[in-house]
Amino acid sequence: MSLRLLLKKLLTCFFFFPFLILHSQSSDLLSKPWNAYWICVPHEPIHDYGVYLFRKIFELTAKPASFIVHVSADNRYKLFVNGKFVSLGPARGDIFHWNYETVDLAPYLQTGKNVVAAIVWNYGDVRPEAQISYQTGFILQGKTENEKIINTNSTWKCRRDSSYSPKEPKLIYSYYVAGPGETIDYNMALKEWKNAGYDDADWLFAQQITQGLPKGVFGFGLGWMLVSRTIPEMELTPQRLQKVRKAEGFQLPENFPLQKESFTIPANTKVSILLDQGYLTDAYPVLQFSKGKNACITLSYAEGLYVEYPNEKNWRTFHQKGNRNEIDGKRFIGVKDSLISRGGDGQEFTSLWWRTYRYMQLQVTTKDEPLVINDLYGIFTGYPFVLNAKFDAGNDTLTKILETGWRTARSCAMETYMDCPYYEQLQYVGDTRIQCLVSLYNSGDDRLMRNAITLLDNSRMAEGATLSRYPTANAQEIPPFSLWWIGMIHDYWMYRNDEAFVKSKLPGIRQVLWFFNKHQQTDGSLKDLPYWNFTDWCETKGWNAGVAPIGKDGSSAALDLQLLWAYQLAAELEMNLGMKEYANQYEAAAIQLKQTIQKKYWDDGKKLFADTDEKNVFSQHVNSLVILAGVLNGDNANALAKKIITDTLLTQATIYFKFYVYQALTKAGLGNDYLNWLDIWKKKPGNGHDHMG
């Protein structure tokens, strides 16, 4: 039995999951323009920051057994029926592939008067980098004649929610692009607007923008090309904060926050409370409060507190969190939400978008009326991966590493994979390939992997390469990541029994390799490859902003080896699923490039492959790729692997690229030493790193 068939058999036997997506769609829904219209609030800016409310009242003579609708928005929405939360979305995509959710409203409906309500928001210029937008809009389409009574059109009522404004984070020395916090003045907020009994007589009728158009359907509509969401709804699970780490200006109840226990903050009082989740989480914070007219409430979120270095000039040293279990003598810096209480009972805050935190800081300044905090907790959210794998080596350290690793994997998986949930929330190819493998091995759920491969395929530029990350509002090009995207497709083919999907990606692979071929010289070596040719975040001699050393002739061993490996994977895919002519072409290109690499970069004195033709810099990266691409095999590969471990003059791989270093060492026969390579992972939990990021 081949390795590929064995892997498929194992994953099929041990990892089964139910398919949770509702695929109840009529043929007309995908083949004709929708009867529903995209709508917006009249006289409001269509591209700026804004939060908007939409409502539709309708009557039912009986409670239906089924009431299926398809819903989407730009940027995002939360949907309610008769005051109850139903759905949120849409899953992130782009204008040419704009997702809609399919939802059955029947469980929330009743005989007589009903209301469907939605809060829709556009982050405008402060939107997350991963958020693509056409303009503010909302659409809801019923599946059949029975549901068409709530199709969005000019009969819907709407208005702007003026209580909201963006709160841009003030973070130090960070690439933060995950969107703003929220400022909400509850004196301006509407009460009970999601309920059927609310009087919306003074609301505006919605403005129709354009008919909903499924992708590929002709129409004179503009903007969004609608496609059905292919991933499940995100998990939403209540999650209690674990303990109070510090309280200034107030004595808290003994069981708060681990248990629901209300407390009152006196009038004209300032309180600061530092709460600890105990581990990094992604969650919607929920604060329930009463009274306290015009009290100012701030919720802040941080992975860890920052060490104080009063006289430090070096920004990297200044920007350190140290042991994340420790809080004394540290600064709290983080994303914030700010609220102003209107007074009265039953006020509640839930953020529009989730927050990432281990530590949550609650700060309150009351005015003339005491403020009651009724409850404070989170609603954990993430892609609904289920840990189906079992591991027991009788070793507590390894168990802890795996627990931390799985928490990291879950924290970095939402509607897409993400490089980090706090700062960027972007799906970079380099990170995503590894995350996909973690998902497959531990859960067996391949839907987010398929989604990632497809999104990145959709990002491909006319010149052939994919973008480095996607979705993204601003294009970023890292050509080597296009090669790792080919690796993702090969991984999927190896582990899943889905040849049709892989075949659909072969044209994209051909385009990527066509892009690289244009920059190959007569000997096959790449020269002056454009854009940002990132390999790993190293800062040693010859490395610049993550780009491996480039020789005077414009070539780089790291780039040539990544291309070699991609040619080999593509040749195998074409030989088994595609066109033999392409397979032969890629095999010939790989043979030539392998010979060039051996001749151009091998240093016989050092018994290492150099990073450039000048042979003055060497790295773990290049020599690991040599083994993975089969430039050396057998005893020669084994000898090289030992030097990768022992030669301290080599540029060392960061935690990201160590994945490939360890793959190479294992391939070369040193896999039995794997546990000796885990020092960095063994240290993380002891320093309060409950997360591998």
Q: What can you see in these coordinates?
A:
A hairpin with a 4-residue loop joins strand 27 and strand 28. The protein has 14 helices and 28 strands. It is globular and about 80 Å long. The two termini are 38 Å apart. The strands form six sheets. Strands 10, 11, 16, 17, 18, 19, 20, 23, 24, 25 and 26 form an eleven-stranded mixed beta sheet that branches. A six-stranded antiparallel beta sheet has the order 5-4-7-2-9-12, with no helix packed on it. The longest helix is centred in the last third of the chain and has 22 residues.
Number of strands: 28
**What distance lies between the first and last C-alpha atoms, to the nearest angstrom?**
38 Å
Q: Percent helix among the residues?
A: 25-40%
The shape is globular
Rg from Cα: 27 Å
**Overall SS class:** alpha+beta
Main sheet summary: 11 strands, mixed
**Low-pLDDT windows of residues:** 9-22
Descriptive keywords:
693 residues; alpha+beta; 11-stranded mixed β-sheet; 6-stranded antiparallel β-sheet; 28 strands; 27% helix
Task: Give the topology, please.
Blueprint: H1 3-14, H2 27-31, E1 37-40, E2 50-60, E3 68-74, E4 76-81, E5 84-89, E6 98-104, E7 112-122, E8 137-142, E9 157-160, E10 164-167, E11 181-185, E12 204-205, E13 207-211, E14 213-214, E15 225-228, E16 235-239, E17 243-248, E18 263-265, E19 270-291, E20 296-302, E21 306-307, H3 315-318, E22 330-331, E23 335-340, E24 347-350, E25 355-365, E26 371-382, H4 396-411, H5 429-442, H6 447-458, H7 479-495, H8 499-517, H9 557-577, H10 580-601, E27 602-603, E28 608-609, H11 620-628, H12 634-646, H13 658-670, H14 679-686
Parallel strand pairs: 6-15, 11-23, 14-15
Antiparallel strand pairs: 1-13, 2-7, 2-9, 3-6, 3-8, 4-5, 4-7, 9-12, 10-11, 16-26, 17-19, 18-26, 19-24, 19-25, 19-26, 20-23, 20-25, 21-22, 27-28
